[in-house]
Amino acid sequence: MSDPFPELIDTRSLRIAIDDGFNWIVAHYGEPLEIAFLPILRMLIATEDFLQWLPWYVVLIALSALTYLASRSWKTAAGTAVMLFVIGVIGIWEPAMATVALMLISTLLAVVIGIPIGVTMSRSNTMQSVALPVLDIMQTMPIFVYLIPFVMLFGPGKIPALLATIVFAIPPVIRLTNLGIRHVDAEVTEAVTAFGATPRQRLFTAQIPLAMPTIMAGINQTTMMALSMVVIASMIGAGGLGYQVLQGIQRLEVSRGLFAGLGIVFLAIIFDRIAQSYGRRMQQHLNIES
Amino acid sequence: MANGETKIAVRNIYKVFGPDPRAVMDQVRAGVSKTELLEKTGHVIGIRDVSLDIKAGETFVVMGLSGSGKSTLIRHFNRLIEPTAGQILVDGSDVLELSAGALRDFRRHKVSMVFQRFALLPHKTVLENVIYGLAIGGTGKAQARDKGMEQIELVGLAGFENQYPKQLSGGMQQRVGLARALATESEILLMDEAFSALDPLIRNDMQDQLKDLQARLHKTIVFITHDLDEALRLGDHIAILKDGELRQVGTGPEILLDPADDYVDRFVRDVNRARVVTVGSIAQPVSSIAAGEASVETLRPLLEESAAVVLMEEGRPRFVITREMAADGRLGGLLDNTVTLPGVVCVDELAMLEESFPSLTGSNDAIVVTKADSIPVGVVARKTILNAMIRHRA
C-alpha cells in the first residue's frame, strides 16, 4: 500500500475546537437569535396561512392576471391558469401554497439583503474581489453542509429552512446586481455626475434603473434556486411540496413523489415566465440605440 | 461677442495615469518621452503641461486625433478627472480646491456638458431628461417644467417632450442632450465630440444650430472635436493637441496660414482654405481720403504707411491707388487723369476667399475690403489671395 498522507496537524483537536466553538455560540446565542428571527417566522406563517385561506380560484385568477401584466400575452396567462388548475386537481393545492409562501418570503429577503450587497460590491473593486470567492463557495458548497449549523442553532423548523434557502438562493441576485451596475454605460454615469448628482442620486436615478433588467435576471435566478431548495429544506421541517416528495421516498409511493414533483415544476415555470417576460419588456424599454 | 475676459484659465495641467503618478512627476517635468516612461515605470502621460486661456463668450475648440488627450483635458474642467498637477481657474477661483459639496454646486450651476453618445437616461422622457440637472439640484417641479419646455422649444423639439430618447433619431437625441445642458443656465458649456456620432448632414445642421444659439446666448463653449472642418466652422480659437501636448493655439486662419510645426501643417494640409480663410484676415492695411483732397502731397505719406489709398466719393470707395501703381513717380499722372483709374471692387471683410473669386475677375489690381458695406478696412491683391490658397511649408 502506498504511503498515507502524513498527519501534519492533529485534525481531531481542530475539529473539536470548531465544534466546541459552535456549540458555545449555540448555547449563548441560540435563544436570542431565535427571538430575533421570530418576526420573520411570523411573516412566513402569515403568508402561508393567507395563501391557503384564499379561495383557490382567487389565487388562480390573481397569478394569471400577474402573468398577463408581465408578458402581455393571453397564451402565457392561460398556461398559468391551466398549470395551477392541474395542481389543484391532483390534490396538492395546500402544500403548493406553503411552498409558494416559503419561496416568496425567502426570495423577498434575499432581494432585500442581496441588492445592497451587490451595490456595495459594484462600488469597490476590493469588495468585489473579497465577495466573489465567498459567493463561489456559497454556490458550490453542498447544501447539506449549511443545514447543519442552522439546525443546531434553531432546531428543525421553518426558520432554519428559510435561512438555508436564503443562503443558497442569494448569490445570483448579488452577482447580477454588481454586474448590472458595473455595466451601466459609463458615459451615462459620467453625465449624471457632470450635472452634479450625489452618489445616492447617481445610484437611484441612473445606475439601478439602467441595471434593472440584469437585476431582474438575478431575482429570477434567485427565485428558481429558492424553489429548487424546497425538497431539501423539507428535511428540516419546511413542509410544503418538498415534504410530499420526502414522504414519497420514505413510503416508496411513486405517485406521491411524482405529483409533488410535477407541482414544483409547474410553480417553477409560472414564476420563471412572470419574471422573464417582465425582464424582457423592461429590456426593450431601456434599450438605447447608439 | 467675446468681451475679452478670461473665463477659464488652465495653468500647466499634467495628467499621468498609473499606479503612483505623483512619484513620476519629476521625470515627466524633465521631459521624459511617453514610451520611455511607459517602459520604465508603467505610467502613461495623458496631458503634459497644457495651459490655455479661454475667454468669456467664445467658442474654444480643442482639436486632436484619438489618443491626443482631448477628452481627458475637457473632463478636467468639471473635475470628472483630477489632474496630477496644475491649476484650473474659472472666474479666477481654483476649481481643484472645491469641496465635494461646492463641486456639486459648481457642476449644477456653473458648467454643463454634452456627450458624444448623448448619455441620456433611457427610462426618462425627453422632458425629464432635459430637467435632470434642475431636478437633482432641487428646483421645484413646476419651475423646472417651465424651464425645460423653454429649452425644448429652443432646440426645436416641441411636441416630443413626452417621448422616450430611443424613440428619437440621433440628431434629435443630441438636441435633448443640448437642451439638458442649456436648462441649468450654466455659463460654461463643455461639448465632448458632441456631433461626431451624427450623420454629416445632421452634423452640419447641428453646427448651424449651435452657432445660432451661441449668437443669442453668449455661453463660453469648450468644444472637443477630431474634425478640422468642424473646428474651423465653430471655433473662435482652436487649440491643437497631440500626445497630450499643446501644439498650437490660434484662430482658424492663423492656424491655417501659419502652422506652428510639421504636425499642424500636415493636419491642415487638405483643408480647402478658400472656404475657411476670410478676406479680412489676409488684407493689408489701407488708408482712405476724400477724392477731392487727393493730391501728390497728401497721398505720398499715406502710401508710405499703408499698402494702398482708397479715394472716397460721397462716403463710398471710388478709386484705389496701390503703392505699386504709384511707383516710379507715376502718382502725379494717375491723379491728373483719374478716368484711366479702374473702378473699385469691394468685398466684405467676413467673406471667405471663395466668395471673392467673382470679384477678382472684375478687377486687375486690388480689391478693397470693407466693413459695414462701405468703410474700407484693407486691401487685397489678387496675388495675396492666390498665395493664401497655397499651402505653407514649414
Question: What do these coordinates show?
Answer:
The complex is a heterodimer of chains A (290) and B (394). Chain A is mainly α. Chain A has a single domain (37-286), classed as MetI-like (MetI-like fold, Orthogonal Bundle). Chain A is built from 13 helices and no strands. The longest helix of chain A has 33 residues, at 254-286. Chain A is globular. Chain B has a domain at 280-389: CBS-domain. In chain B, strand 15 (366-371) and strand 16 form a beta hairpin. The radius of gyration of chain B is 26 Å and the shape is globular. The two termini of chain B are 33 Å apart.
Strand content of chain A: under 5%
Question: By helix and strand content of chain A, what is the structural category?
Answer: mainly alpha
* Share of helical residues of chain A: over 70%
CATH architecture name of the domain at 280-389 in chain B:
Roll
What structural category do the secondary elements of chain B indicate? alpha/beta
First-last Cα distance of chain A: 67 Å
> Which runs of chain A of at least 5 residues are low in confidence (pLDDT < 50)?
none
β-strand number of chain B: 16
The percentage helix of chain B is: 25-40%
Mean pLDDT of chain A, as a whole number?
88
CATH topology of chain A: MetI-like fold
The coarse overall form of chain B would be globular
Write the layout of secondary structure elements.
The complex is a heterodimer of chains A (290) and B (394).
Chain A: H1 11-36, H2 38-53, H3 56-71, H4 74-89, H5 93-123, H6 125-140, H7 143-154, H8 158-182, H9 186-194, H10 199-228, H11 230-234, H12 240-251, H13 254-286
Helix pairs in contact in A: 1-7, 2-5, 3-4, 3-13, 4-13, 5-6, 5-8, 5-10, 5-12, 6-8, 7-8, 8-10, 9-10, 10-13, 12-13
Chain B: E1 6-17, H1 21-29, H2 34-41, E2 44-55, E3 59-63, H3 70-77, E4 85-90, E5 93-94, H4 100-109, E6 111-114, H5 126-130, H6 132-136, H7 141-154, H8 170-183, E7 188-192, H9 200-217, E8 220-225, H10 228-234, E9 237-242, E10 245-250, H11 252-257, H12 262-268, H13 279-282, E11 286-290, H14 296-305, E12 308-313, E13 316-322, H15 331-336, E14 346-348, H16 353-361, E15 366-371, E16 375-381, H17 382-389
Parallel strand pairs in B: 3-8, 3-9, 6-7, 7-8, 11-12, 14-15
Antiparallel strand pairs in B: 1-2, 1-4, 4-5, 9-10, 12-13, 15-16
